[in-house]
Specification:
- With about 290 residues, the protein is of the alpha/beta class.
- It folds into two domains: about 120 residues, Nucleotidyltransferase, domain 5, CATH 3.30.420.40; about 160 residues, Nucleotidyltransferase, domain 5, CATH 3.30.420.40.
- The protein is built from eight helices and 13 strands.
- The strands form three sheets. It has a five-stranded mixed β-sheet with strand order 3-2-1-4-8, sandwiched between helices. It has a five-stranded mixed β-sheet with strand order 11-10-9-12-13, sandwiched between helices. Strands 5-6-7 form a three-stranded antiparallel β-sheet.
- Helix 4 crosses helix 5 and helix 5 packs across helix 6.
- The protein is globular.
- The two termini are about 20 Å apart.
Length: about 290
């Protein structure tokens, strides 16, 4: 079975032809966050037209909340769907094959469980990228919850934060870029990492702040789920030195709380691997295992 697997994220959109655990072909474009879902699908349709007739199913993973066939953003600053978007209907119209839809970080968690660092174990997956998200696999099942919200760690708010600021708004790649821009260092996380590597102390403090905040989140996730392995993914999470900066905090907490951290072995492909595998197991239009 050949599957068209698509990942629409806050930074890029990936399209992959996938068969028996292998990528046959791929395309990737930046996600134009100033436009919206209809424009993104026009681009996807144009780029995948050459693959029509070559796939039997499609799996589409997106940044945001997916429930009952609809997609909507939970943080418009990361990726804005401009209200509820009928994702399932649009996918059926675009690809004309059975379709599976899900959140991108949940798909990545499943991908790492089946093909990657999870090695079929219970796990928590945490991605730090443009935004922050995650997924949970328990007893060989992807945990989604009653409304498919399980794992949206970036939407957590502090118990002591009176303005209800979301966690990803104080630690994500987008936050790193905004902080850098306010100091005249550059407006992207990639630039701030480069500045820090070159010895800029202000850039280093920004990245250190993000890493320590995420490390504290990880400490809480370990206490809540106590997974055998906690996998880190995303462009920021896998950036050189980021996990080591988190370790500077985590190595000083009680040993029995310390998580077993691992890098996502599939890297940025965790999402497409995960949604491709889910599409093999789930009937057309379903969002759960």
């Amino acid at each position: 079975m050949t599957i068209l697997a698509i990942d629409i994220g806050g930074s890029k959109t990936s399209m992959v032809l996938f068969e028996k655990g292998k990528v046959l072909d791929r395309q990737e474009i930046p996600t134009d966050i100033k436009s919206g879902p209809n424009d993104w699908f026009f681009q996807i349709e144009s780029l995948t037209k050459q693959w029509q007739g070559k796939f039997n199913r499609a799996g589409v993973a997106v940044s945001g909340w997916v429930d009952k066939g609809y997609w909507r953003s939970l943080n418009d600053l990361t990726l804005n769907t401009f209200g509820k978007f009928n994702l399932l209907e649009r996918c059926r119209e675009s690809f004309r094959v059975p379709v599976t839809i899900c959140n991108d970080a949940q798909a990545a968690a499943w991908g790492e469980h089946v093909y990657g660092a999870g090695k079929q174990q219970d796990l928590v997956y945490l991605t730090i990228s443009t935004g922050i998200g995650g997924g949970i696999v328990l007893n060989n099942k992807l945990l989604l919850g009653k409304s498919n919200l399980a794992g949206h760690f970036g939407q957590l708010i502090s118990l002591f934060n009176d303005n209800n600021q979301k966690f990803e708004d104080i630690a994500s790649g987008r936050w790193i870029g905004l902080e850098g821009d306010s100091l005249g260092l550059g407006s992207s996380a990639k630039t701030i990492f480069s500045q820090a590597a070159a010895g800029d102390e202000k850039a280093e403090r920004i990245i250190q702040s993000s890493a320590i905040r995420v490390a504290k989140l990880i400490q809480n996730l370990q206490l809540i789920f106590d997974p055998k392995i906690l996998i880190i993914g995303g462009g920021v999470g896998l950036a050189p030195g980021y996990i080591e900066r988190m370790d500077s905090y985590l190595n000083n907490i009680e040993p029995f709380i310390q998580p077993n951290l691992a890098k996502a072995s599939l890297g940025q492909d965790a999402v497409v691997f995960g949604v491709a595998n889910l599409s093999e197991k789930i009937n057309d239009g379903e969002e759960k295992q």
